[in-house]
Specification:
heterodimer; A: alpha/beta; 5 helices; 22% strand; B: alpha+beta; 5-stranded mixed β-sheet
């Protein structure tokens, strides 16, 4: 079963993403901000990371940058959760190595479609 | 999927945030500049806006959008914190709470939103952009797509295969992999991408669908699209041809590939007349544009062919010396060189071979413009455009063809009214075709006009003194009269042609190319002109024959076989052999010795070389047949132009010159001799 790290400071969003991806066979792990996420990722390897961008402690962009430094997370898909108004963030994210993005609000099936798109 | 526990989480979360918001707002009243408080307020709105719709609260999503925008401006110090803003936001908070919890009275959202909008300077609310639903074309669309990822693309965690699969799911996908940039294994870095793809996709897809596939990678890859108009997924043949074109045309420059495919697709789907043109274009494109092709000036190629010709001559000298030397090694080497020289000859002549289709397509325009100028309705059809000829030959064919076609349009095709009255379609057709027949190319120009009026032609020829009044000319011969200099039956000299200098020049040009012109015509039905041309002007396989002590060359492709001719078989009635029974067929003969007026006795055994041009056959009697000879054709100069018997000369291995005989002319000679002999024989019978 592929593992996914879900990073977002909103509990409901984390749970929602986790729940939705469980439906398509993933095993989710949650982290409430970038720092916690990095810690978790240090001890465990993931096949997919989904992260919000606006978070306290360590925001999404910094998290992606750091993840790409880790050997085991160099080539995995990393998706950003963005909102409509965050177009520049998308570019920033891509520049540091993000694979793609999902725009909030999204429907569960949209999330699943994007994940399948990048996972193959 | 049961979201209820999740929705509950959302509700709890949101209500908690709203409480925090209230606290922040209260504090802002006394500390309106506090950045932390402002950020906190912004973040609440941002979070709720982002997630509300996911849990079924779409209406507060729009609502919180305004609030979020305002607070974004506030924390950037573009809008000041005022008691009005705070009370507005408290109301907003109440509204959200009421909706999310489902309890309590909700204040009027419209008022609150209006209040926010006013703060934003009355700007129209920025609405989340709607997804543009591009409904795909009902009949399906076709796209040429290039996807060329950056070598580093894997560093973004991008998985390439799913992209290809996603593309394939959109419809019918033809994929061409480009792997020219793959380095050797030693240089290969496994985390770099060296390959790329060109695709042809057909199906119920819109460009947006295709762009969607590449949405995440468009920053890290070259992605190009070209819709292919009018190409349907049912055009399997065309699609197959386009795929083949793509495969052979692996250019790194997108513009070249795109233009090649597009022009082929366009010419093919706007079909009518141009099927073969497209085929020859395809052939030209795919042959002329292989990945490592270079443009070479014609001059250089001609020079190369000339040098090859010289090499052939020098080699034949070598052959002679080597057979004289008796040295086995040298002879073997000479043979091997002969093979190489032969291959070199074939390849270099091949370089100059160009499909005639391009010349044909020049004429489309000509016909259209010409017809329009003189009030005719004519279309031109072509076939065999992919037939190849030597480029220099094609060049020199241009003018004669133009003239023939002009004639056809001007004098051949009748005006629409006249055609209709004759029961023909108003639109006339001129059909150009080319095909290869052995070492020749046959080009026909056929029109469905009113044909040659042979009676008028005969009359005109008589009046111009070209033939005597009682000359018995066959129809074919009469038709040939139009090639005579100064001949034209046009009563008016039209702008286009009809000056009477045209057709004879045409015939001369064709003869200069060692070709022949024949005319077939049926009054009322149309005229067909047949041009027979050699494939190449340069080098041919020849048969070397001996007459007395002189060698002559016969083009090998005109030679059927050689028969021995014993002295005892000669008829006793005279030295002239006019006809001979060869396997039941009576064939006219000509003895070259006699024709060339060589003195001396006939050898005991002669050879009859059976020759054929088209359907005409004759036997040429020579002293002996020497053998095959690679003949580099050298022109024999303008002085000898009227000597129709010789079509050129060549240089033999020992440096001497041998003349190349024009078989077609000799056959005519044999036929005429035969004809005369019959007439005189008949007269003899009558007399005696």
């Amino acid at each position: 079963m592929p593992s996914v790290l879900v990073v977002d400071d909103s509990t409901s969003v984390r749970q929602m993403v986790g729940f939705t991806l469980k439906q398509i066979g993933f095993e989710p792990t949650e982290a409430e901000d970038g720092a916690v996420a990095l810690q978790v990722a240090g001890s465990q390897g993931f096949d997919l990371v989904i992260t919000d961008l606006n978070m306290p402690n360590l925001d999404g962009i910094e998290l992606i940058k750091a993840l790409r430094q880790q050997e085991k997370h160099k080539y995995i898909p990393i998706l950003m959760l963005t909102t409509e108004s965050q177009d520049s963030k998308k570019q920033e994210g891509k520049a540091v190595g993000a694979t793609g993005w999902i725009v909030k609000p999204f429907r569960p099936d949209q999330l699943q479609a994007v994940v399948q798109k990048v996972m193959g | 999927m049961s979201f209820d526990p999740l929705v509950q989480t959302f509700k709890d979360e949101t209500l908690e945030s709203l409480n925090d918001l209230e606290v922040s707002l209260m504090a802002l009243e006394s500390r309106p500049e506090d950045a932390d408080l402002l950020n906190a307020a912004f973040r609440v709105m941002h979070t709720i806006k982002g997630s509300a719709a996911m849990f079924g609260f779409e209406q507060i999503s729009d609502f919180t959008h305004e609030a979020e925008t305002v607070f974004d401006r506030v924390r950037n110090h573009e809008i000041p914190v005022t008691p009005h803003l705070i009370s507005l936001t408290l109301q907003a908070k109440d509204y959200i709470r009421a909706i999310v919890s489902g309890e309590g009275d909700a204040p009027d959202p419209a008022e609150i939103m209006q209040g926010y909008r006013a703060l934003l300077g009355g700007e129209a609310a920025s609405v989340a952009p709607e997804t543009i639903d591009e409904s795909s074309d009902e009949e399906g669309q076709a796209f040429l797509i290039r996807f060329r990822p950056e070598p580093n693309i894997l560093a973004t965690g991008t998985n390439l295969l799913p992209i290809l699969r996603e593309l394939a799911d959109l419809g019918d996908l033809r994929t061409v992999l480009r792997s020219d940039a793959l380095p050797t294994l030693a240089d290969l870095q496994p985390d770099q991408v060296y390959v790329w793809w060109d695709f042809i996709l057909t199906g119920q897809v819109s460009q947006a669908d295709v762009e969607d596939v590449f949405m995440f990678v468009s920053d890290n890859a070259e992605v190009q699209y070209q819709p292919l108009e009018h190409v349907r997924s049912t055009d399997t043949h065309l699609l197959h041809e386009l795929e083949r074109l793509l495969i052979s045309h692996g250019d790194a420059d997108w513009v070249n590939v795109r233009d090649a495919v597009q022009s082929y697709a366009e010419s093919h789907t706007h079909g009518q007349v141009i099927k073969d043109e497209a085929a020859s274009q395809l052939k030209m494109l795919s042959e002329g544009a292989r990945t490592s092709s270079i443009r070479v000036p014609t001059e250089r190629i001609n020079k190369l062919v000339d040098l090859v010709g010289e090499l052939v001559i020098a080699h034949s000298r070598l052959v002679q010396l080597s057979s004289q030397s008796g040295n086995g090694d040298i002879r073997q080497l000479s043979e091997e060189m002969g093979r190489l020289v032969g291959d070199l000859r074939d390849e270099s002549l091949d370089i100059r071979m160009v499909p005639i289709g391009t010349t044909f397509s020049r004429f489309q325009r000509l016909v259209r413009d010409l017809a329009r100028d003189i009030g005719r309705d004519v279309i031109m059809e072509t076939s065999g455009g992919d037939t190849e000829l030597d480029a220099t030959l094609i060049e020199r064919l241009g003018d004669p063809l133009v003239h023939i076609i002009r004639n056809a349009v001007d004098h051949g095709i009748e005006p629409p009214d006249e055609r209709e009255a004759a029961g023909k379609p108003r639109q006339g057709t001129i059909h150009l075709s080319a095909s290869q027949s052995g070492p020749h190319v046959v080009i026909t120009i056929q029109d469905d006009g009113h044909g040659l009026d042979l009676k008028r032609i005969r009359e005109k020829a008589i009046s111009k003194g070209l033939i005597s009044p009682d000359a018995a000319l066959s129809d074919k011969e009469a038709a040939q009269l139009i090639f005579a200099a100064g001949f034209s039956t046009a009563d008016q000299v039209t702008n286009v042609s009809g000056r009477g200098v045209g057709m004879d020049v045409v015939r001369q040009s064709i003869h200069a190319l060692r070709g022949t012109v024949e005319i077939d015509s049926e009054l009322g039905r149309g005229t067909t002109i047949h041009l027979t041309l050699p494939l190449t002007l340069a080098i041919i396989e020849g048969l070397l024959v001996l007459v007395d002590d002189q060698e002559y060359v016969l083009p090998l492709y005109s030679v059927e076989e050689c028969l021995e001719f014993q002295a005892t078989e000669r008829t006793t009635s005279g030295a002239k052999e006019h006809v001979r029974d060869v396997r039941g067929q009576m064939l006219p003969m000509v003895r070259l010795r006699e024709w060339l007026k060589m003195p001396g006795d006939l050898p005991d055994i002669e050879q009859i070389v059976m020759t054929q041009v088209g359907s005409r056959r004759a036997g040429l009697i020579v002293d002996s047949v020497i053998g095959k000879h690679q003949t580099v054709i050298k022109p024999i100069g303008h002085i000898f132009e009227d000597m129709r018997a010789f079509s050129g000369a060549t240089i033999l291995g020992d440096g001497r010159v041998a003349l190349i005989l024009d078989v077609s002319w000799l056959i005519t000679l044999a036929e005429e001799e035969h004809h005369r002999a019959i007439q005189s024989h008949t007269r003899e019978l009558v007399v005696s």
